Amino acid sequence: MKKVLFLLAISFFLGFLNASSLYEKLINKETISVGTEGICPPFTYHNKEGKLTGYDVEVARELAKELGVKIKFHETSWDIMLTGLKSGRFDMVANQVSLTTKKRQAAFDKSLPYSYSGTIMLVRKDENRIKDIKDIKGLKAANTLSSTYGEIAFKYDAQIVSVDSMAQALLLVAQKRADLTLNSSLAILNYLNTHKNNPFKIAWESKEKDGGASFVINKHQEKALELINQAMQRLINKGVLKRLGEQFFGKDVSQP
């Protein structure tokens, strides 16, 4: 028991060190480290040349430019991304995070949103059992366990088939190893538009958009968050988010 408490204290202390240093990095124009998946187009992925890009990635680059700091990306899986943030492995997360749970809201703060999205359920074209989100009870949902969409599937009593990416989720559904997958409406609509001969259809779509995806940092960094939000507002005013939205989605996604 003492060992567990000691490890928890160390984890908290490391998170505190990271929290206290981000503001210094910003005002001293140093390098900030950003966690992202790198496997989730069109938000964070590698293009044909192998360069890390995507809407979230490019917004993060523009934010760093506006703040006058350098940026270094750390690609990691979603399941350990927020743990990495808390432990001090990186300063910020750029990965379509909306902090929907009370547990996450207690541990992290988020910037002004840079995109808004709903939730879409994708199934095979021959799937006729699902007309509503409540119909997924007992069915297999291919989703990342700790993601917003995995939490939605769990809430409605689906059996979660754990995956690491949207591409893997779609493969499992196509192979009938899962019945459905839930994901961002922006990600799914982008996939459907770029893969015309796909075996899927939309079974359900949320009527409301989420609270907005934002950059996420550890709690107790009010001064750093203020600088980030000021820079984000300048990017909005300059039309930078609008331009990037049109580049990746064909429309401005920074407004609810």
TrEMBL record:
<feature type="domain" description="Solute-binding protein family 3/N-terminal">
    <location>
        <begin position="31"/>
        <end position="252"/>
    </location>
</feature>
<dbReference type="Pfam" id="PF00497">
    <property type="entry name" value="SBP_bac_3"/>
</dbReference>
<dbReference type="InterPro" id="IPR018313">
    <property type="entry name" value="SBP_3_CS"/>
</dbReference>
<dbReference type="GO" id="GO:0030313">
    <property type="term" value="C:cell envelope"/>
</dbReference>
<comment type="similarity">
    <text>Belongs to the bacterial solute-binding protein 3 family.</text>
</comment>
<dbReference type="InterPro" id="IPR001638">
    <property type="entry name" value="Solute-binding_3/MltF_N"/>
</dbReference>
<keyword id="KW-0732">Signal</keyword>
<protein>
    <submittedName>
        <fullName>Amino acid ABC transporter substrate-binding protein</fullName>
    </submittedName>
</protein>
